[in-house]
Amino acid sequence: MKKGRLLTAFLGVFLLLTGVLAGCSSKSSASEKTGGNNSKEITMVFYPNESAKNFTASRKALQDELHKATGKKVNIQTTTDYNVAIEAIASGKAQFAFMGADGYIQAHAQNAKVEPLLLQSGPEGTTKGASYRSYLMVPKEKADEYKKDGKYNIDKIKGEKASFVSTSSTSGFAVPTDEIQKHFKLKDKDELSEGGKFFSKVLYGSTHPGSAINLLKGDVDVAAFDDIDLTAFLKVTEGSYDKPG
């Protein structure tokens, strides 16, 4: 991952992850089997990033805490697609979901019973520092091409090949495209989601490491992903995580 170099960081502070609790939907046959008030089982669904093998221990820790709090058997549902997780919590097939802000908004729009329950705290055990960052990265050897008046600038990304995580990802799509829309004064950011409009080509990595891999393989010129999911692979050799460059 050392080949990647930070081009710019967007909206450095927002809530890291929300826990979501959904009341059971009367339309969902699955919710009749698990999750109801009289049920002995509940299900928690995870996004693709948190479904990875290296998150097994953290999933188990949450599973144990939920069991202690509810006294119920907690089933873990892993996914390979953001929309699967959103649909699971919105439909009542899952009663808990570990997800970002954009996913919560989509799930709540589908089912008003989906509500935030908890968020991951910062280092002091409070909301202070409970944040993460969304990046646009380019290859190190081309980083200087994205400078304007000695500072990094995203003017050059128009017409290039880009990678995002998923259109349901907060830091892997919603945040960077919001900033791109503002920077280029676009009327509709929908044109950023597919190639042939603003970008010549748009790929999706399904996970944050997947988006980074699209960049490292040379399939795209610029890629969006967050810092927290790349911590195990990314090393800052100069500067800091929260500043461009």
Protein described:
The structure is a single chain. The protein is built from six helices and twelve strands. The strands form three sheets. It has a five-stranded mixed beta sheet. It has a five-stranded mixed beta sheet with strand order 4-3-5-2-6, with helices on both faces. Helix 3 (82-91) packs across helix 4 (101-110). The chain is an alpha/beta fold and 245 residues long. Strand 8 and strand 9 form a beta hairpin. The radius of gyration is 19 Å and the shape is globular.
Overall 3D shape: globular
Note the beta-strand portion.
15-25%
Helix content: 25-40%
Radius of gyration: 19 Å
Count of distinct strands: 12
Order of secondary-structure elements: EEHEHEHEHEEEEEHEHE
Task: Give a concise summary.
With 245 residues, the protein is an alpha/beta fold. It contains 6 helices and 12 strands.
Secondary-structure topology with pairs:
Blueprint: E1 4-10, E2 18-21, H1 29-33, E3 41-46, H2 56-70, E4 73-77, H3 82-91, E5 96-99, H4 101-110, E6 115-119, E7 134-139, E8 147-148, E9 151-152, E10 161-164, H5 170-184, E11 201-204, H6 208-216, E12 222-226
Parallel strand pairs: 3-4, 3-5, 10-11, 10-12
Antiparallel strand pairs: 1-7, 2-5, 2-6, 7-12, 8-9
Helix pairs in contact: 3-4
